[in-house]
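task queued by scheduler; priority normal; single chain, no ligands, no partner chains; default sampling; output format set to structure tokens
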Amino acid sequence: MRVISVGTLRDFWLRPGRSDAEQPLKSWVHVVRAHEWYNPAEIKAVFRRADVIAGNRVIFNIGGNKYRLVCAVHYRG
């Protein structure tokens, strides 16, 4: 998966009171960059708690569901 803007995530975890999001977000970036998904089931196999919603979007739970990250996903194939 191609992550378009890690800078936006960095801006978030650098906000006062959000430093606890840094490691979970860095881990998320590391995992998603290592995968190429062809369908929502493949995402669910890696992130069991992710919610696939309309418009090829996925909601990822970050930091034990303390934060949520909504992403648009363009599947391969």
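post-processing summary
- The chain has one domain: 6-72.
- Residues 1 and 32 are 6 Å apart (CA to CA).
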